[in-house]
Design a protein that fits this description.
By secondary structure, the protein is α+β, with helices and mostly antiparallel strands. The protein contains 9 helices and 11 strands. Helices cover about 55% and strands about 15% of the residues. A hairpin with a 3-residue loop joins strand 6 and strand 7.
Length: about 375
């Protein structure tokens, strides 16, 4: 550790500064790429389709939509990285699609069909369904909205945790500053609560081995849940409401549970302590236990995905009430607008609670499943003969 004046420079300081610089650069680049465009459609505004609007806002995208002014859209373009079967690799900003209305180098965003909302390539000479071309999905490595939000939330998580770790590093040898304050004290309170009330009781004596993973999962989920409630950049992405993200989180828990499971755990799966006729000749109980191996991570995946997605859909649905009641008259529209605003604010407050609850529940269930895989053999005490 180097000492410069009254400040201490540690490796954590250097890492934190570099991460902060990277985050600032990411925001700077995103800000310089903000563009506005005007749609080329003329005529009357189409009728509001609530279903399409909700699905559009909760789904992933190739640009980060900020806001709209009439027919003008302000978005942050994201890099598109695709590999064509015919022309090889292509890298270009998503603004080349002009909000999905134009093609670029043979690539465009499908507006319907099985690849709706995804980048496709038009291959000529292969007639199908009355067409003289076929839509083919290229290899797509693009940085989408959810992926960009995932990167930013991960960087934010690293900054927050390293800043707390840096405080404890500086505290060494200074007993007069033993008690943390402010944000560090809050993080310590949350970590202590999760470790003492969830991880330690659910796992047992080996809890330290799995604490880093479970705390990482908890903070990752709650940060992304909270960012998803912010309606403007850098929030608004539906990361934990994306089933691919929750699937990976559940898969990580599944791997840890089954790779580090004890011998007794696997014995209870393939040869459980039940009457023999439930195991042979038909392995009924072993089959049920094996199915249970997959239903546990499936429950983790669906629970987080469904709750977060439902919260976003409810908020958007309540907001749409304002526009759906315009044709019902001024009095009705004003009354429903006031009701919509009140209910939306209320649901947003509930979602703040849900953001914590879902992170807590996912961590708790993961700890429970890990604890069940650490079961040890029970040795019954020898009975004494009483004569």
């Amino acid at each position: 550790m180097k000492k410069t004046g009254n400040c201490l420079k540690s490796p954590l300081d250097t890492i934190s500064l570099r991460v902060k610089g990277l985050l600032f650069l990411l925001f700077l680049l995103a800000g310089t790429n903000v563009y506005s465009e005007e749609t080329h459609q003329e005529g009357e505004k189409p009728e509001l389709n609530v279903r399409e609007l909700i699905l559009d806002h909760v789904s992933d995208g190739y640009d980060w939509h900020i806001t709209s002014f009439g027919r003008r859209h302000i978005s942050i373009p994201l890099p598109v990285i695709v590999k064509s079967k015919e022309s090889g690799w292509h890298v270009f900003p998503s603004s080349k699609f002009h909000h999905g209305h134009e093609a670029y180098k043979g690539f465009y965003i499908a507006q319907d069909g099985p690849y709706k909302g995804k980048i496709v390539e038009k291959i000529a000479g292969q007639a199908r369904n009355g067409r003289d071309y076929e839509e083919v999905r290229p290899w797509d490595f693009s940085l989408t909205k959810n992926a960009a939000s995932l990167v930013m939330s991960s960087i934010l998580l690293i900054i927050l945790i390293l800043s707390c770790a840096n405080w404890y590093k500086k505290r060494e040898g200074k007993p007069e500053n033993a008690s943390p304050k402010g944000f560090v004290a809050f993080v310590e309170l949350v970590i202590t609560s999760i470790v003492d009330d969830v991880i330690k009781p659910c796992i047992g004596k080996n809890y330290r081995r799995y604490t880093p993973y479970l705390l990482t999962v908890f903070f990752f989920i709650i940060i992304n849940n909270l960012l998803g409630l912010i309606p403007v950049f850098p929030g608004g992405a539906n990361v934990t409401g994306n089933i691919a993200i929750t699937c990976i989180l559940a898969l990580c828990t599944f791997i840890i549970v089954n790779v580090f499971g004890s011998r007794e755990y696997w014995k209870e799966i393939f040869w459980p302590d039940v009457p023999w006729w439930l195991k042979v000749p038909v392995p009924l109980m072993p089959a049920i236990e094996i199915v249970g191996l997959f239903t546990k991570p499936f429950a983790l995946m669906i629970r987080l995905f469904a709750n977060i997605l439902a919260g976003h859909a409810i908020v958007l649905g309540l907001t749409c009430i304002i526009f759906l009641t315009v044709s019902l008259g001024t009095a009705m529209n004003y009354g429903m607008t006031a009701l919509s605003v009140i209910m939306t604010v209320f649901i947003d407050c509930v979602e703040l609670l849900v953001a914590y609850i879902q992170a807590y529940v996912f961590t708790m269930l993961s700890a429970v499943f890990i604890g069940l895989s650490q079961v040890e053999a029970h040795h019954a005490p020898k009975s004494e003969n009483i004569g």
